[in-house]
Design a protein that fits this description.
It is a single chain. The protein has 171 residues and is mostly helical. The protein contains 6 helices and no strands. The two termini are 30 Å apart.
Length: 171
C-alpha cells in the first residue's frame, strides 16, 4: 500500500510539473498573440505572496529579483501541490480518465485564483475583477488540468483506476 501511495504521489508531482509548464506556455502564447490580455501594472499575486513570505522570514525589503524568483517558486510550488493532491486521489482509487483534467483545472482555478488569492489578501474580490481576467485565468487553469491529467494518465497507465470501471457503469 505504501508503495502504491509513493508511486502515485511521484506521478502527481510530475503531473503538476507538466501542468505548470503547460500553463506557462499558455501565458507566453497569450502574451505574443494578445498582449493586452496579460499586461498589468499590478504586482503578480505570486510575487505578492513571495514578498509576504520573505518579510516574515526577516527580509525587510525584498528586491524585485527576489520577488520575481520567489513568485516563480510560489507558482511552481502551487502546481506541484495540486499534482500531489491528484496523486493522492489516484492512490485512493479515484478514476483518472481523460475527462477529469478539465474539471480539475476549474477546481484549481476556483480554489486558488478566484478565492484563494482574495482570501490571502493577494488580489481583488472576484466580483471586482474584469471578465477578461477571469477568462484568461480560467484558460490557463484548464490547460494546467489537461497537462496534469495527460501526464498522470501516461505515467500511471492503469494505476489509480477504479477496478470496477466506475465511470463506464455511470455512463
Amino acid at each position: 500500500m505504501a508503495g502504491k501511495l509513493k508511486r502515485n504521489l511521484a506521478i502527481g508531482v510530475l503531473g503538476g510539473l507538466a501542468g505548470t509548464a503547460a500553463m506557462n506556455a499558455y501565458w507566453k502564447g497569450l502574451a505574443k498573440t494578445k498582449p493586452e490580455l496579460v499586461k498589468s501594472d499590478e504586482e503578480p499575486s505570486t510575487e505578492k505572496a513571495a514578498r509576504k513570505a520573505l518579510k516574515r522570514a526577516g527580509v525587510r525589503s525584498p528586491s524585485s529579483q527576489a520577488r520575481k524568483y520567489g513568485g516563480e517558486a510560489v507558482h511552481w510550488g502551487t502546481g506541484i501541490t495540486w499534482g500531489l493532491l491528484a496523486g493522492a486521489g489516484r492512490a485512493a482509487g479515484i478514476p483518472t480518465t481523460w475527462g477529469l483534467g478539465l474539471p480539475y483545472g476549474v477546481m484549481a482555478w476556483m480554489a486558488t485564483d478566484e478565492w484563494g488569492r482574495y482570501k490571502a489578501g493577494l488580489g481583488q474580490h472576484p466580483k471586482d475583477r474584469l471578465t477578461q481576467d477571469h477568462a484568461t485565468s480560467l484558460g490557463a487553469h484548464l490547460v494546467y488540468g489537461v497537462g496534469l491529467w495527460a501526464t498522470t494518465k501516461f505515467l500511471g497507465g492503469r494505476a489509480g483506476r477504479h477496478k470496477h470501471g466506475f465511470l463506464r457503469r455511470a455512463a
